[in-house]
Amino acid sequence: MFKLNLLISALALAGASLTASAVEWQSLPSKAPEPADNPSTPAKVELGKMLYHDPRLSSSGTVSCNSCHNVMGGGEDNRGGSVGVRGQVGGRSAPTVWNSAFNSVQFWDGRAPSLEAQAKGPVTNPIEMGMKSWDDVVARLKTIPGYVQAFSAAFGGKESITTDNAAKAIAAYERTLITPNSAYDKYVNGDKNAMTEQQVRGMNTFAEVGCGSCHSGPAFNGPQLPEGTGFFMKFPTYQNGYLEAQYNLSVDLGRYDVTKNEADKHLYKVPTLRNVALTAPYFHNGKVKSLEDAVKVMAKLQLNKDLTPEQTGDLVAFLNALTGEFPKQEMPRLPSYADKTFDYE
Amino acid sequence: MFKLNLLISALALAGASLTASAVEWQSLPSKAPEPADNPSTPAKVELGKMLYHDPRLSSSGTVSCNSCHNVMGGGEDNRGGSVGVRGQVGGRSAPTVWNSAFNSVQFWDGRAPSLEAQAKGPVTNPIEMGMKSWDDVVARLKTIPGYVQAFSAAFGGKESITTDNAAKAIAAYERTLITPNSAYDKYVNGDKNAMTEQQVRGMNTFAEVGCGSCHSGPAFNGPQLPEGTGFFMKFPTYQNGYLEAQYNLSVDLGRYDVTKNEADKHLYKVPTLRNVALTAPYFHNGKVKSLEDAVKVMAKLQLNKDLTPEQTGDLVAFLNALTGEFPKQEMPRLPSYADKTFDYE
């Protein structure tokens, strides 16, 4: 159905040293690419915003997409494991929804090739939003007059409330969640005063140390690949018993869980560094609580380097320059279920 | 501290029959009264909006005021019992925050004499937001630079992050949550086409049957009393073993839990009927799932009347005319904890 098989073997790049001038510094596009079968329209985005913020897409009526990917903050929940229905805690840390439109695959293990495919996952995950099936979601939405109207406006026709259309609308909304004009973007676009001296030093360190080998491209999440292609790296690349034990890095098998290929053990999607200063705790399991520690752990486990305190400080300063401008958003109105209530668990 | 003792004994009013012309029909004010010690300012409202929507005011970092009092919908969660930290379910149904500024007391049992007092409750309730103390909340807020700035802008000074100021800001935000211009308001203000014929019939029935004996005033929650004065009614007023068993109405002792006065057993604050069509399920325990059933149960248990199907339909139509206009709201930006994370449970 989707091309998920092309795994760019980027391991050879790891540990490479680059000079700042050798890195192709790119600013963030103001618009995300759209798949041919889901062009964005205002009606679709508005519907997607409603669905994204609607806790009635969960079995308990209490968990929405926004519960774990909070767009009022850094686009996630600042927790190690996210909390789903019945207080259940998930095993991986929620990635940010901001700029997720620039990921070529979704989820830490890349199991969704598109935002549309991703949107279908958590709703029926028993420890996340807990719905028994998308058929149940569709049945619920069909009883809410405001959704009948909003789906019709977005997709046309009377039978427009479908799983695919719900996912398309959510994805269209998520494609508007872009944070341009960070200090870094302004600097790259010519405003040499946009970053502090320390941030500029950190930018050079970022290239010299080798961070840019993997965290490349405008979203710092790897080369721009077609949607559905993954850019995965092994974490840890360099073994270190002490750090692996400290941060519990051996348990999760990463992409192996999806492919069952031995070579995919401990491989993860390279995450964006955009707004990384807002998204502690860090890594797939959220075990590293500060950005400073995350930088040191990355350098050691991915590049086999011990950073000086100055390098670490400079890198953290640079990563803070990747915090962008968040577009103003009006709260959606969630349409009423006509003076009745669902049988929530 | 506050005058909570004045209980208006309205029992004598119950069962009274009124004609539509005898009821004083009032439209909703566009502005809520403000206490002398907490005048609203834009900076205070903006801070209050941030706090109201910030899940970091809970022990788990997952429950905000808005989780149970969702302003994107009818101002509550459309559940019987609300869900707090660790998936715990509360015993009473969350009242709507919309137009709560027009309540003279807060909570079903009226235990808070003001919005400011109410705001302090759920945060440290172990089954709601679960914080050990407000001191812990204040300590958390002080480590978030954006809150240091926002409290200073709202209250001035360096030591402006306090429990009282947090509650004042939340209350100031809540005083902006008013829904004017319902069909009923337009009708009362002279637009005789604003309500349907059935809604006008329902308005007359509302008066004739006696609903307006308790649900009076512009917010349909009783006479306008000074903040801190409660307007309570016994529910059920007329005993009915069948309905009491069906809807489990004997367990909760209502205001008695606050005062320990025998006369206060099963007394509850008369809730607003504004936007009641959006806030199913109904009553203090959320056991009645549709507005139609709520109307019938009220007539039987409070007025000892069996409504005809026509009366019930007309009353439901009229209650739908009380759904107001919801002001557009921009989503707040929740300030970051500077690339670190809290130790959430």
UniProtKB/TrEMBL annotation, chains A, B:
Gene3D superfamilies: Cytochrome c-like domain (1.10.760.10). Keywords: Electron transport, Heme, Iron, Metal-binding, Oxidoreductase, Periplasm, Peroxidase, Signal, Transport. GO terms for molecular function: cytochrome-c peroxidase activity; electron transfer activity; heme binding; metal ion binding. Binds 2 heme groups. Its main location: periplasm. This is Cytochrome c peroxidase. Binds 2 heme groups per subunit. Residues 43-178, 197-323 form the Cytochrome c domain. GO terms for cellular component: periplasmic space. Residues 1-22 form the signal peptide. It is found in: Periplasm. It comes from the Bacteria. The lineage of its organism: Bacteria, Pseudomonadati, Pseudomonadota, Gammaproteobacteria, Methylococcales. Heme c 1 binds at residues 65, 68-69. Its cofactor is heme. Heme c 2 binds at residues 211, 214-215, 298.
